[in-house]
Amino acid sequence: MKKLYTLLTVVMLCWIGVSAQVVTTQPAVVQVDSRDIVITFHADRGNKGLMGVGKNTKVYAHTGVITNKSTSSSDWKYAPTWGNNAAKYEMTWVAANTWTLTIPDINTYYGVPAGETVKQLAFVFRTADNSKEGKGDGGKDIFVDVLPAGFQIELSSDLPGDIVTWERTGTFNVVCTRAADITLSVSTAQAPFAQAYNATSLTGTYTFVNPGETEIVAKAVANGQTVTKSLKFKRLVGGEYAPYPGGEIKMGAVTNPDGSVTFCIAAPEKESMLLVGSWNDYKITDSSLMSYDEDDEGNYYFWQTVKGLQPGKDYIYYYMVDGEKAVGDPYANLVLDPWNDRYITSSVFPNMPKYPSNVVSDTPVAVYNSTMNDYDWQITDFHGPAQSDLIVYELLIRDFTGTEGQARGNGTVAGVIEKLDYLKSLGVNAIELLPIMEFNGNLSWGYNTNFYFAPDKAYGTPDDYRELIDEAHARGMAVILDIVFNQSDGLHPWYMMYPIAQNPFYNGSAPHGYSVLNDWNQDNPLVQRQWHDALKYWITEYKVDGYRFDLVKGLGDNDSYNATYNPANNTWSNVTDAKTNAFNQSRIDRMKALHDAIREVKPDAYFINENLAGAQEENAMAKDGEINWANINNASCQFAMGYSSDSNLSRFYAPSDSRTWGSTVSYAESHDEERMAYKQAKWGVAGVKDNLAVSMRRLGSVAAQMLMTPGAHMIWQFQEFGADQTTKNSDGGNNTDNKKVIWSYLDDADRNGLMQSYRELCWLRRDNPAMFAEGVNTSVNSSSWNGRSISLVSGNSAIYTFVNPSVSDQVTVASGADLSGAGYKLLSCSYGTTPRATAAGVELAPGAYAVYGTANIAGIGTEAVVDSARVLIYGVEGAIVVEGECDDVQAYTVAGTRVPLSGLDPGLYIVRAGDQTAKVVVY
Fold it and tell me: Rounded CA gap, 239 and 501, in Å?
């Protein structure tokens, strides 16, 4: 790597990381009066955001200047509006990953007025459509120094930093703006170690042997004028082999019984590691060098024990790899971010530790606090429903709460806590959070994880997350975390520590067909240890109840996809979707190993795979007690829009799709799929797309066909009241932009009615688990367009669901039994409709559903015993009926408002008769 210095000296103990130059220039020394400056952008360096972009793709420079009037490095002057594709900013393709831009004259090109002095040129490179960006390491802007006119020199070194941790030789280069006599020397030596006469450049080498500080001085003399530049380095001594205390190597910051803390990081093939921390004001000395231990595979673990840290105090730390690259801690429990933390308000994260920008700038850093994981749990031994009984509510904290009616992405953990009572009343028994581990930026779905042991601060504090889980448990709801083991973003320490071609933790390109961001090398035992440790950590320290594993298709062994590996650049070719989708035993084995790790700390933890593979593979996973996502979105949308083709919803029931009973969590919508209501409004048939009441009714019938089949199911946030914002970009990819907060949708009667349908159906399941258990006589006919039915029969108990798929016709769906008698009751039906049971079947309005059950089924309406007398409570059109002796009957809306027993609007009501409570639907 090459490091370019334009300052007279480098401040010794303040580490500002510098990487290989993303931009080089001709002339090598850019001055205010330079002409025809050629800026060469190397797309395979820095963040590599434009690496691999071909010559036929237009690339532009977004460029401005830093002047003597700029207040900071972010205060660019004279830059165009973002996305300006004027010809002057268009880059010229030279070769693979190499692009150039010519600036004829700095002041003219940028429009800098007289009297203002340019100090730096600033760049971000992008594609014409702004979909990809080329920046420096860590996503930083790129700067080129501009020196004054006249005789100047530049001094650069191939050493990546100013700390030298072993005896090594550095190469030093001097470039002059005119011919001169040039020397390179050590400040304490009389004789130079390199010199040249009447030259414009000089290269020399120097070996750092002696400990302590060394200053390398470049001097150029021409026409009686002398110019000097210097670089300072420090050679450290220490960092010997020593066994990790206690024998078992534990990564991260571990508090010892005596109060000391042992810090440890794995770094195969690295020579040295420095621990830099706030406990000594980030001073780098010989004692900063960490000892190292080695495992059976030859991997180095660097460790150091620090004493005297105060309990309950925040200590900030980071590591410096081989004295050159600052990185965070892969096992950090809290992470500080130099780019995004400034936008997190104190109301979201009070007293957040401040990023130490005076000593480090280009990497996230870690926070240690001995009490960070202390929390006074109110629920200490929560156990949720059986895995096959899960009714999961998938939510993205960012968009679930916040500013109503706006897409600001300001949802918080505290906001979710305020909505827990709503979720409880809805009848779901589990909440699945899109990834909350520290991700890149503040506005994200979370699938760009950088740190797997730290919650992202954009939503709240660590204790906010714990409170959310505790309060959910107090309401009988489990909490499941979505976790991403296929890929990470570019700020994970193990990604930053190595060039990608030599990175033992990552593949340069994925061996499977679902590559996203940076592909983890699943063959590396340290990667697998990270997964096992992370899974145990969130269960033990946050009491989560299980996980949904993202993109399991990518978690196989590298060679299991039959791709071709190129060791020269750590990449894979001959990758196909067909090979990725084929049966893969290594995926089965890997998921079992992860499940075994979880079972060590929580045997009944939920284990959900997003595999979307064939039945053979997923049934093998089911034998291990795992369940798999089942995507029924397309058929659900077809039914919702009013199309008979491809509308078979029988796959909501696992055996209908050749899956093991209870082995799927099926869904009509998820964060990855388009909203049914969006497609209804855009492509629905006549009578659906232009009629909200009908479209909501059909969505309710989709819900009935899903929730009334045995097995686990999932609801994507706001699905229950017809969310209709598109989730897709024009190219069909996921639109991860902020979405509007739409709780006001519940003010609409038809949308609220849909929500009530979901509520009734969820509670029917929760109140009657035995009817959805394995062994119940189950018949699912959710394919016919003439009428659909689901039958659950167990002994003298039964639940029957009927659906009319027609868009325009009232249909009688055959029931096989006369449900109009006293032995049966209506349990749920589409909002605004009145089903009629006859000897022939159930008469339903177009697109409507109805659920009937035997009298002994608990649900909407009930038979109760009040003061030794039997009382039957049920709803009819506009009224609540109470049959039997009971003087104390009170009715309430679900919002808690007391209402009379008659003259009621359609909806769900809560009825109290003596000491008994019933849920009643009025039509």
Answer: 27
For residue 27, is the peptide bond before it cis, meaning its omega torsion is within 30 degrees of 0? yes
pLDDT tens per residue across span 666-722: 999 999 999 999 999 999 999 999 999 999 999 999 999 999 999 999 999 999 999
| Count of C-beta atoms within a 10 Å radius of residue 475 | 14
Question: Around 864, how many Cα atoms within 13 Å sit in the side-chain half-sphere?
Answer: 23
Task: Kindly state the helix (H) or strand (E) to which residue 487 belongs, with its residue range.
Answer: strand 487-488
- The distance in angstroms from the start CA to the end CA of the chain is 74
pTM, to two decimals: 0.84
How many CA atoms are closer than 13 Å to the CA of 19, on its beta-carbon side? 26
DSSP sequence for 848-917: -EEEEEETT--SBSEEEEETTEEEEEEEETTEEEEESS-S-EEEEETTS-EE-SBSPPSEEEEEEETTEE
Amino acid at 654: A
d(CA 200, CA 852): 92
User: H or E element: which one contains 625?
Assistant: none
Q: How far, CA to CA in Å, does 913 sit from each of 828, 873, 881?
A: 21, 9, 11
Asked if residue 136 lies in contact with residue 19, where contact means CB atoms within 8 angstroms, the answer is yes
Rg over CA atoms, the chain = 33
What does the chain come to in residues? Answer: 923
Measured CA to CA, the distance from residue 187 to residue 214 in angstroms comes to: 8
Annotate 636-697 with DSSP letters as a single string.
Answer: HHHHHHT--TT---GGGSGGGGTPPTT-EEEES--TTS--HHHHHHHHPPTTTTT-HHHHHH
**Per-residue pLDDT for 915 more than 90?**
no
3-class SS at 699? helix
Partners of residue 801 on adjacent β-strands:
790, 851
Read off the tokens for 406.
């706006």
Q: Nearest to residue 460, comparing CAs of 500, 508, 411?
A: 411
pLDDT digits (tens, 9 = 90+) for 772-827: 999 999 999 999 999 999 999 999 999 999 999 999 999 999 998 889 888 899 99
pLDDT interval class at 14 (50, 70, 90): very low
